[in-house]
Specification:
Blueprint lengths: L1 E3 L2 E4 L3 H13 L5 E4 L7 H9 L4 E2 L7 E3 L2 H10 L2 H10 L4 E3 L4 E4 L4 H14 L3 E3 L4 E7 L2 E6 L2 E5 L1 E4 L14 H8 L9 E3 L3 E2 L13 E9 L5 E11 L3 E3 L1 H16 L4 E5 L6 H10 L5 H6 L4 H10 L13 H12 L1 E3 L3 E2 L7 E3 L7 E2 L4 E2 L5 E3 L6 E3 L4 H16 L1
Length: about 400
Amino acid sequence: MNKSADIIIIGAGAAGLMAAIWAARTRPDRRIVVLDGARTLGAKILVAGGGRCNVTHYQVDEIAYAGSSRNAIKKVLRGFDVARTVEFFRELDVELKKEDTGKLFPVSDSARTVLDALLNEAGARGVRIVHPFRVHDLQHDAEGFRVIGDAGEWTSEKVILATGGRSLPKSGSDGAGYKFATAMGHRLTDRMFPALVPLTLARDHFICELSGLTLETTLQVRSGSGAKLASFTNSTLCTHFGLSGPSVLDISRYYLDAKATDPGTTLVINWSPGQTFESLEARMLREPHAPVGRVLRTLVPERLAVALALHSGVELSTSCLQIPRENRRVLVRNITEMSLPITGDRGYTYAEVTAGGVPLDEIHLATMASRVCLGLHLCGEICDVDGRIGGFNFQWAWSSGYAAGVSV
């Protein structure tokens, strides 16, 4: 069947629902339709934050993001900031609480609370959500847009692309939005790759044998020339495939991006943040009669202490004085700045967001309107913007979705 609407939004995720709500609030006389290919809506919202949905962070600025220019990202975030996000959800009867990490979660500790509030508000404002309706093609001419899907065709003068990226494809993010954007005349960044993604090591690497071990570490990306490119200190999880946890997810996009253009790029880990090569070597020299094991156990968990000593060719029972100088320096280096032989990443299936997309310089920042296709707006993950873990990507969805919705 062929149907028409005043505004069509493709994608009923966080950004799409936000855009729909604010379009309806701004122009309640408009017929607003949201099309989504999923049978069950809001999969990404429901799995976010371990099922609790990390709605935002108490302090958000452009420094937490990568991709397009941070100044451009700042302008969009400023239009709908954290304070307005908190107030918006309060209006929907979703109270948020701040945790020690700075993350804001619903007091219910349930992502379902967030999704239901968005869906209920959209419905109350007269927004029609049609699903499952998988869009296959988007066409544009002088009369407007034709949105062609497996259940018919819709026409409209205005379209918002809120299709997401390629991350978590089981949620429906298959990257189709990029095809629609390019069909409308947009270009994509040269590189697109998984971000906030676990990293892999060879299965015989000793770290894989420490699966389940969690501790705070500092991870650092270094260029082939040794320049420090990025650094994060946070919880790190050793797994059967390599490394995961907040620190790894945050640094993954910086490592993968740099490695693609500089094969000499390395990822370095400090298992004992605060210690440097110099400070730890000095400590071992100040305690010449102490067994190496006693010193290591004050720095790292027992399992890791044993593994690091073995990997460095040192016996834990040996006193610091008895270790040959070269072995001591290898051990100290492995604790404070071990180079990790990363073999790859776990791909979009396990990535929380996509790096790359439609550059912001092709979008009017105040309205998220396309600079190359009249009547088209874009918001959310389809844009070349990706943030750290902790609610930053949701905040981008709320901010960009708001801008698109009120202006469309």
